[in-house]
Specification:
40% of the residues lie in helices and 12% in strands. By secondary structure, it is of the alpha/beta class. The strands form three sheets. A seven-stranded mixed sheet has the order 2-8-7-6-5-3-4, sandwiched between helices. α6 links the parallel β3 and β4. The longest helix has 21 residues.
């Protein structure tokens, strides 16, 4: 054992298990909580930390939930894997939106996307199995992999490639222990969108080497300009028996707090994950499931309106950030995040301090400009910041103006 690795204390001396004690809190939620606490204390903090739409859940979805509250059917336990009518509607929605045909028996309704991700990894990973994780990555992915006994193996892309990894990079990371490759497009935290050709190439590479793919499609409807969303199992049908799709209502319908996600996959994997959920949480909240049923069964008018607003904010924030010396902000093609490089600011003096990394820079920004951002260390790539532009136009302009003023003072 190296000197840098502390010994594991005897079991009788441990209050928190090694497995859970090794998990760090969600950096994005921590930043959001701190911003809200400062606002509650009277400070005019503008938060770019949380990844949730600033729009309310559409009224017709809320009405469906109210009606469900009055229905005694939903006052009781329901199947652990989800309401049968919701599972059927998710299968129909998947065919409608991505051209991927699945059966309701291939669907598991979960308590949000995070539970879906964990249960998917838990269903396929054995201790020591490796998962290739493109970085920058959403903070929950590697923690879910570790909780399931797997080992995340990072493959890093940067702004020079639009934050998209290549088949060559993935192949270089593959070992005899590799079991799964994670694929996320559109991406959190970068907003990167893989082209149909890039998506197909990665899928065919996975098929060639007998790998599983977990693909997170939760931002499927938030793409801009010429970018298009591509569902990997639809363009690579040979992958169907080794592909798990994760999705949910949170981003498309502004329902982050309702906590309804789902897994789509081979029947044996879905059955195993359902067994796990039956002991962990049992059924998802029935009222939320009823609301989700109305959401996925309806049209996409609400998301079209949100996408128009996000697109406007996307162009504004990219322009304003790129006006700051030392900041390089690529234009994201999807989701609602920008991921600018701030390497050009590190080590420079800003109001008497010289931040050495993006953690220190983010802390300085919060203290001096009262703007909350998430440092790149949370996403596996130091030297960057993540900002969500899912906030009002006025707050966005004011927040980035504060950044321009503060960071514009940087000097050698």
């Amino acid at each position: 054992m190296s000197a840098a690795t502390p010994p594991v204390p005897p079991a009788t001396d441990r209050r928190v298990s090694v497995r859970v004690g090794a998990i760090s809190e969600s950096a994005t939620l921590a930043v959001d909580a701190k911003a809200k606490a400062l606002k509650a204390a009277g400070r005019p903090v503008i938060g770019f930390g949380a990844g949730e739409p600033d729009f309310p859940t559409p009224g017709y979805i809320v009405d469906a939930a109210v009606e469900a509250c009055r229905n005694p059917k939903f006052h009781r336990y329901t199947p652990a894997g989800g309401l049968p009518e919701l599972k059927a509607a998710i299968a129909a929605k998947t065919l409608r939106d991505s051209g991927y045909e699945v059966d309701a028996s291939q669907v598991l309704v979960t308590n949000g996307g995070k539970q879906a991700i964990y249960e998917a990894f838990a269903a396929v990973l054995d201790p020591g199995d490796e998962v290739i994780v493109p970085a920058p990555y959403w903070t929950t992915y590697p923690e879910s992999i570790r909780l399931a006994g797997g080992v995340p193996v990072e493959v890093v892309a940067d702004e020079t490639t639009g934050y998209r990894v290549t088949v060559e990079q993935l192949e270089a990371a593959r070992t005899e222990r590799t079991k799964v490759v994670l694929f996320v497009s559109p991406s959190n935290p970068t907003g990167a969108v893989y082209s149909p050709a890039e998506t197909e190439a990665i899928g065919r590479w996975a098929v060639e080497h007998g790998l599983w793919v977990l693909t997170d499609e939760i931002y499927e409807h938030l793409v801009y300009g010429d970018a298009v969303f591509t569902s990997m199992p639809q363009v690579v049908p040979q992958l169907r028996e080794k592909c798990i799709v994760v999705n949910g209502v949170a981003k498309t319908y502004a329902m982050t707090g309702w906590r309804v996600g789902w897994i789509i996959g081979p029947k044996d994997i879905v059955k195993a994950a359902t067994n796990l959920q039956s002991h962990a949480t049992s059924n998802v909240n029935n009222v939320a499931q009823a609301a989700a049923l109305t959401a996925v069964s309806g049209d996409l008018d609400a998301v079209a309106e949100m996408r128009t607003a996000f697109d406007r904010r996307r162009r504004t924030i990219v322009r304003m950030l790129n006006e700051i010396d030392g900041v390089v902000c690529p234009t994201p093609e999807g989701a609602f995040y920008v991921y600018p490089s701030v390497k050009g600011l590190l080590g420079k003096e800003i109001r008497g301090k010289r931040p050495a990394d993006s953690v220190e820079l983010a802390a300085l920004i919060l203290d001096e400009a009262e703007v909350a951002v998430v440092p790149g260390e949370a996403f596996g790539t130091p030297g960057y910041l993540r900002l969500s532009y899912a906030l009002g136009d006025d707050d966005l302009a004011e927040g980035v103006s504060r950044l321009q003023k503060l960071l514009g003072e940087a000097q050698d």
